[in-house]
Amino acid sequence: MSGKQAIENKVDALFAAWDKPNSPGCALGIVRDGELIYTRGYGSASLEFGVPITPESVFYIASVSKQFTAASIILLSQMGKLSLDDNIRQYLPELPKYNHPITIRHLAHHTSGIRDSLTLMAMAGWNLESRYDNQDAVRFIARQKALNFEPGVTYLYSNSGYILMAEIVSRVSGQSLRKFAQEHIFEPLGMTNTSFDDDRTMVVPNRVTGYGTKENGSFRRYVKNEEAIGDGGVLTTVEDLFRWDQNFFDPKVGGDDFIRKMLGQGKLNNGSVLDYAFGLEHGMYRGLKTVGHGGSFIGFRSRILRFPEQAFTVICLSNLDNFQTLPPLQKIADLYLSDILTPKSTSKTKDIQLARAALQEKVGLYQNTNSGLAAEVFVQDGQLMGDAFGGTFALHPISQTKFQFIGTPTQIE
Questions:
Q1: Are 177 and 198 in contact (CB under 8 A)?
Q2: Distance between CA atoms of 371 and 159, rounded to whole angstroms?
Q3: What is the arithmetic mean of pLDDT over 224-238?
Q4: Would the pTM count as exceeding 0.70?
């Protein structure tokens, strides 16, 4: 067996639990030095029709979409149609005149203080499968008479910023975000199976169905009724995301200035530099720089994890709401970049163990007092889980009373 085949077998083993026709699963793409060196589909795109997932399967990618909204804004700035430091009320006069101006840059970096649209709609009684669009979301946002904080003072992830950016693209360009991105990003890069999904009646070949888990271990199908785009909304494949990934190394769209702006990290008023750029997050993994983003909504999980200095990227798109995308992608990096990654820590950390009865005491509905985000916490297979951000996440105890959502920066106490 060749070394290449041995590594690919180890990759496949990471997804073996989903590699069967009676389970949702994921599509995987591994990119190295400008080539898509491995693609696979695991599990079913449709349990009803027995359709397997392939690299050509079209997934909803939730918040991974944000980088395409940000890219559209940056392209408009390059065209001279707007400035990233413009006051957003120049384009959105229906928003209240707050005590401090909010710029487009604030929206992109999640430092605007504007309350999260999904949270607002949930508080108004809407759910994940309600029908709503950008106009509904903007209407909710415009009713807010106050901000969570003064713009630029702190970072707080807010889908509202990207909904409003989508509206700015439309009003400035005279096109919907869907049409603008199609003309200026997707078509030039040959992303023929990619679009912003602003029409729930649209027929999309190879579209994947999103699923959730039930208490008895069976699956439920999610119905995607929302037509809001900007914070999410993109339908795409791992093969098309490979083409987008390569634009960061050979920028056919936007040029070097475009890439520099996309990767430009936000700053707070006090000068602190954020990890968040324009729909992208900077990070580190075992001594190597990373750039990426994750997404989660209505039965879909997605993630792009790029190691820019190594020209290595892993893409994973899943149609199961409790699928954790980050751990397997990091393990794939362990396999391919083993010779340059720093050793894993061997220091012994004390795992926090909680009895099932103690876990059961944590079950309930929680709300973040800063953002208003609500999360329903429950126990599943001996693991504390939480429904939030449009998906289901595992909760890892970091103390007897504090838990971390795995794959997100959010904590519950």
A1: yes
A2: 11
A3: 93
A4: yes
